[in-house]
Specification:
Layout lengths: L1 E8 L9 E8 L4 E5 L6 H8 L7 E6 L2 E2 L8 H5 L2 E5 L10 H10 L5 H14 L15 H13 L5 E5 L7 H16 L3 E5 L3 H7 L2 E6 L2 E6 L7
Parallel strand pairs: 3-8, 3-9, 6-7, 7-8
Antiparallel strand pairs: 1-2, 1-4, 4-5, 9-10
Helix pairs in contact: 3-4, 3-5, 4-5, 5-6
The protein binds adenosine-5'-triphosphate (ATP).
Subcellular location: Cell membrane
Protein name: Cell division ATP-binding protein FtsE
Function: Part of the ABC transporter FtsEX involved in cellular division. Has ATPase activity.
Length: 227
């Protein structure tokens, strides 16, 4: 589903590579944690998958396509196959919960009848049944992140990328979000999550890829956060 072939990334005006000769293959349906110290290259890894950045050398494949060879007009449809969740939720503050999720479908041209049916279904799935009319600032952090997960998943993407999704949440709330991501993964969505949350990684026992200064120093199935 995702393949990195000898991928290096050196940002302009940087001496050190953010990623250095990375070879990684992630199969369809896997759940993978990406760990490593701050600045080790995790966000760069995720940005390359979204083609927000391009590799300096090497090749990145997503769902069989080499991203460097993708015409720019095909990038939006490629990104539609990838849901994204971030630490800071990134909800539209002036839209209700329902509207936030519906918006993700409107921008890709889904008909109103489909949106009316699908949005309550996904809000139910993430445990926000009955909260569709709330504004984001009327929700707890955990609930806001559930909205973000609903929005990322409503289009049933092949891949879900989560960059520190529990970074702003307390431990109990984080467990709830992880249960949700686990459930989404079980519906055959490949999940890739960058995190510093050692408790979560140790509890879940999924594949762990560790970066250190842009180099993959560990790739362990059913791994833990540290050694
Ligand atoms: N747009 C950019 N321009 C220049 N350098 C960058 C850019 N983005 C990241 N870097 C550098 O690339 C390296 C890797 O950064 P990256 O953000 O990928 O790390 P990270 O593991 O995600 O860190 P964190 O855990 O703090 O989010 C760092 O040295 C960083 O300073």
């Amino acid at each position: 589903m995702i393949r990195f072939e000898s991928v290096s990334k050196v940002y302009d005006n940087q001496r050190r590579a953010a990623l250095n000769e990375v070879d990684v293959e992630i199969e369809k349906g896997e759940f993978v944690f990406l760990v490593g110290a701050s600045g080790s290259g995790k966000s760069t890894f995720l940005r390359l998958i979204l083609r927000e950045q391009r590799p300096t050398t090497g090749r990145v494949f997503v769902a069989g396509r080499e991203l460097n060879r993708l015409h720019s007009w095909k990038i939006p449809s490629m990104r539609r196959q990838i849901g994204t969740v971030f630490q800071d939720f990134r909800l539209l503050p002036n839209k209700t919960v329902h509207e936030n999720v519906a918006f993700a479908l409107q921008v890709i041209g889904k008909p109103a009848s489909v949106i009316r049916r699908v949005v309550p279904e996904v809000l139910d799935l993430v445990g926000l049944d009955g909260k569709g009319d709330r504004m984001p600032d009327e929700l707890s952090g955990g609930e806001q992140q559930r909205v973000a997960v609903a929005r990322a998943f409503v289009n049933r993407p092949k891949i879900l990328i989560a960059d520190e999704p529990t970074g702003n949440l307390d431990p109990a709330t984080s467990v709830g979000i992880m249960k949700l991501l686990d459930r989404i993964n079980r519906s055959d969505t490949t999940v890739l999550m960058a995190t510093h949350d050692s408790t979560i990684v140790d509890q879940m026992r999924k594949r762990v890829i560790e970066l250190d200064e842009g180099i993959v120093v560990r790739d362990q199935s059913r791994g833990v956060y540290g050694y």
